[in-house]
Amino acid sequence: MLSATAIVLIVILALLLSWLFYLRRRPQGATSVMAKARKYHKWLMGIIGIQFLIWSISGAYMVLVDIDFIHGDHLAKPADAKLNMADVQVDITHILAHYPKAENITLSLLGSLPVWRLQLDGEKLMVDATNGAAMPPLSESQAIRLAKDLYSGSSQVVSSQLLIDHAPPELSPRHLPVWRIEFAGMVSPTLYITQQHGELVTRRHDFWRVFDLMWKLHIMDYDDGADIDNWLLRILAIVGVLAALSGLILTILRFAQPTSSKGGAHEAG
Amino acid sequence: MKLVKQLHKWVSLLVGLQFMLWLISGVYFNFMDHHKAAGSTYLADASEPATFTALAPLPFMQGVEEVRLVQLLDKPYYLLVKQRPLYAYWLGQYELVDALTGKPSQIDSAMAEQLARASYTGPGLLFEVTLQQPPIADLPKERNAVWRVAFDDDIQTAVYVRQQSGEIAGHVDTHRRWRDVFFTLHFMDYASEGSFNNVQIMIMAVLSLWLAVTGIIWIIALVKDGQYRPALSQTQHGLQLLNVQGVPAGCLNLDGNASLYDGLAKAGQLLPSSCGGGGTCGLCKVQSPDAPAFTSADAEVLSEQELAQGWRLACQHQVKDFSGVSLPAQCQKVERHELQLTSARFVTGNIKELTFRTLAGMPLAYQAGAYMRFDIPAGHQPSVLPEPVGQSVEDNSKPFERRACQRNYSLAVPEGERELVFNIRLHCAPSQHLPPGMGSNYLCHLQPGDTVTAFGPFSEFKMIEGSQKPVVLLGAGSGMAPLRAILLALLQQQDAQRAVHFFYGARCEDDLLYYEEMMRLSALHSRLSYYPVLSQPSGQWTGATGYVQDTLMLNQELLGELTELEYYLCGPVEMMQQTIAMLKAAGVADEAIRFDSFGQFPSSGTDKHEVKR
């Protein structure tokens, strides 16, 4: 499919070049086309040029800063601790017997404690796998301790907050309720840990927050950053194509100018 | 500012195409159907989370980070996660255990096919099942081995099932492949890394940032220079054209709000420009006695002296800022006009008078004696036959091929007339095997209403500026045209008492071009003396006979001191050669003799090609 597109692009380029070749034979034709292109470019860019600047700045930020860094993968230590089956005293049969309606059942670690995590009627529940007791939601101190364990940096916690009903734009509301633990640092590193399951659901730092802003600017969504098909963007993108195309024609003509094309000299006195 | 413009131009060369690709792919993302583009056309809804009873106990296991109870094809499995990836498409390590039997299980091709079918709602039949290792063309981000289950539906859906876990890695169909093509273009991800952090896009992004920043700076400079004045309405503005000497040479009625460059271009006066009005090439400069304040673009390409002399870039100012402009001499050569024939008649047996007007409807600026260059297109036409005066001749000659060329013809009227008159001497085929004159046959074949393209006028043969000396015009045949223009121009100068002597040679009475007009003019203007000279007169002819140049020498006493006159010659080469030799022998200075040649001077014999007339 890429090769088909490449062929189409080559054909378009060939058409453009042959048109150019045709214009070269009529130098005045080239000049008047160029004058038109110049005018369109000037006016269209005069109107929407600022959006091109915004596209360029936001685009440059997004491509220059590594996306894995943006995603804050480095903010948390890799969670690769293994389960010790000797600690798991409560088998799945016990869980199923006690919670027959349980869904999405997993066995994993909370810190070093093996736990069963499950969903019951849409509610999250965690069961201690060493004794089968249902665990209460994370307290603030538990959440902070867990966050410190997960955090790869060494800075102090500057704030902790339990988000119950309202999620900030950087957190999906489906994870609520969530502990928001922010650490000290230039980029305000923040970990989000679910209250019921003690799971790290997302992390943020200012580079990601800037990325989110850049993304919104790039797709001209000044609302929530979810639509990339808003009409403002559609109109701007189409006008932008015309504005840039006139510029491209201008560039091609400017660089492919016949060396000299000024009238002919009269051959007789 | 000049650097900014240069940067903008060069950077645009480097990123221009990618810029277009970004925009076009951006427009595509805007208008695509997101559901389809995600490959979800034939994606089944996720099955309801299942609940289970009576499962086998967990097996003994080591090195496991997490155990998930999952459901594959309505059967429970333990998914042992030995290495949990940050994102599902990153490389993970999993094992499956049948949760009913407690026995290890594997996703084989049959199971992959069933899993794929369960997530597929399309009409396609199974086409093939293959195991693929990353990199996978359809899934550039995927780092796990996957089963590719292809269906033969209308959009070539392929369902990818992760080999270790049995998870559906995705549906990929034509819609999604197109989206991915545009993603590849938008992200310049030509190495299919599934990422936009590649070196090539970083370079392009930095360059486009330059393009945008320089563009914005340019816009700001344009705003400052008042270049963003919208021309919402048209206002007519009379613009006086001045010739190189600053003498008024016609008036144009232009839209006052247009740029001077555009206005002149619209009027057919295309100034040279290699930047198309960007104010960077400096070629469209014009001089004006009342030039407006210069802009930053003017100051960049014009010298201080030029600015002080009233030179400005036509593209940087509006028409209404000027009352008169003087165009550079060389650009008067590139003027192009569409001329429409209004009348045509044979004025002698083989000279046809063609009268044109410009389609643009405005008089042209030139000096008497000027010529225009006609575009003769390639074509196919019968020869035009000369017309003995008073009787028409049936055109029965063989058609001939005409190749494209250009031919020069002098204007037979001075500046200021609405009508442009030319005398075209018809060149007949010298023999049956040779074609006739291309230009003259084409032009003489035109019918009133036909249009032709002409360039000019080119004022090369013209009167000596500022002179009041008596004038001798000497010519023969269609050499009449520029001399007649000069003659009429001289006679238009009402107050001048300048004597004009016109010697005109022809073969016989019928070949005397504009005879009646000349007789009438000489009767009207005592300062005009007209000397028709015939080389082969009829018996009734009482005027001068022989060669025209000889008649000039014979009438020296009527002219006065030869060295006190100025001479304008146009006609056959031999005639002019001999005249020039005679005048020089009489002590006339070179500067006092001007001639318009239509052969290659001083070679003898008329050229087979008609260079002029």
Description:
The complex is a heterodimer of chains A (269) and B (613). Chain A is of the alpha+beta class and 269 residues long. Chain A folds into two domains: 30-71 and 207-256, no CATH class; 73-204, no CATH class. Chain A is 45% helix and 17% strand. Chain A has seven helices and seven strands. In chain A, the strands form two sheets. In chain A, strands 4-5-6-7 form a four-stranded antiparallel β-sheet. Chain A has a three-stranded antiparallel β-sheet with strand order 1-2-3, with no helix packed on it. In chain A, a hairpin with a 2-residue loop joins strand 1 (103-110) and strand 2. In chain A, helix 1 (2-25) runs antiparallel to helix 2. Chain A starts with a helix and ends in a 14-residue tail after the last helix. Mean pLDDT of chain A is 80; it is low at 258-269. With 613 residues, chain B is α+β, with helices and mostly antiparallel strands. Chain B has four domains: 42-172, no CATH class; 236-332, Roll (Ubiquitin-like (UB roll)); 336-458, Elongation Factor Tu (Ef-tu), domain 3 (Beta Barrel), CATH 2.40.30.10; 471-597, Nucleotide-binding domain of ferredoxin-NADP reductase (FNR) module (Rossmann fold, 3-Layer(aba) Sandwich), CATH 3.40.50.80. Helices cover 26% and strands 26% of the residues of chain B. Chain B has 14 helices and 27 strands. In chain B, the strands form seven sheets. Chain B has a six-stranded antiparallel β-sheet with strand order 19-16-21-14-15-20. The relative contact order of chain B is 0.07. Mean pLDDT of chain B is 82; it is low at 389-394 and 599-613. At the A-B interface, helix 1, helix 2, helix 4, strand 1 and helix 7 of A face helix 1, strand 1, helix 4, helix 5 and helix 6 of B. Chain A: Keywords: Membrane, Transmembrane, Transmembrane helix. Chain A: It comes from Bowmanella pacifica. Chain A: The chain crosses the membrane at residues 6-23, 43-64, 231-253. Chain A: This is PepSY-associated TM region. Chain B: Residues 334-464 form the FAD-binding FR-type domain.
